[in-house]
Amino acid sequence: MARFESKVVVITGGSQGMGLATARRLASEGASVVIGSRRKDVGEAAAADIAAEGGQALFVQTDVTVESDVKNLVDAAVSEFGRLDGAFNNAGGGSVFGPVHELDADAWMSEIDFNLTSVFYSLKYQVPAMLAGGGGSIVNNASQLGVVGMGTVSPYVSAKHALVGLTRTAALELAQQGIRVNVITPAGVDTPLFRGTMGATPEAAAHIAGLHPVNRVAAPEEIASFVAYLLSDETTFITGAALSIDGGWTAQ
After folding, report:
1. pLDDT confidence of residue 1
2. Which of 72, 78, 196, 240 has the smallest C-beta neighbourhood within 10 Å, fewest atoms?
3. Cα 45 from chain centroid?
């Protein structure tokens, strides 16, 4: 089904995990996907794999914490494909741990920049490009920790809560201009980042799985299917929503 025929979608953090699964899903349904991520080798390989599967993909090396890189990513999408119809602002992650009163200020700001300011930069350049084409859909990736708390990860939790607020504000600002903005709040997902940190050992992975009422984490493709739905024209009455894909985590 070519739900995204002639559509152009930018995906930050699109070379692995949820971003790559989404890029593959959208490309399989006709979209031209533009992948932005830091690692050139991994990003180029991801775009090549999508092309080998018959999809259309472009990789642009991007550090989402650098405003000029984010601008270049959007400019490249428009230059290569002529328009921008959608975006999945997926880049982010947690690497700063400890009680709030013991955190280093620079580490705090680095985490905020990666998880929040990066999305501000993305919206700043994606929105004008979409307005020029008549509208579009944006999905931001927060976390279940964007709606609940957890100890020892206050920079990440703070950034993800703020991202939910940023999403709702942008949605209200753009509601009558043809651009929808939503945010997903997934819990554990079996990505390379997850396997390298929280799921680094079988015991740790089992512990994290057990925090979900369904007793497992999600596959990246389960997230990708819902992101594709939100980016599609089947969800034109959904904007400003924070939508849980969390195996029941926040229902507890």
Report:
1. 57
2. 196
3. 19
pLDDT for 111-151, tens place per residue?
A: 999 999 999 999 999 999 999 999 999 999 999 989 999 89
Cβ pair 64, 114 in contact under 8 A: yes
Which pLDDT does position 2 carry in this prediction? 82
Average pLDDT, the chain: 95
What angle do the packed helices 17-28 and 220-231 form, to 10 degrees?
50
Structure tokens at 123: 């919206």
3-state secondary structure of 155: helix
Residues 170-194 as b or e (16 or more Cβ within 10 Å = b) = bbeebeeeebbbbbbbbbbbbbebb
17 burial type by CB count under 10 A (0-12 exposed, 13-18 middle, 19+ buried): buried
As annotated, the active-site residues are 156
Residues 6 or more apart whose Cβ sits within 8 Å of residue 180: 136, 137, 138, 171, 174, 230, 235, 236, 238, 239
The C-alpha atoms of residue 154 and residue 75 are separated, in whole angstroms, by: 34
pLDDT tier at 194, thresholds 50, 70, 90: confident
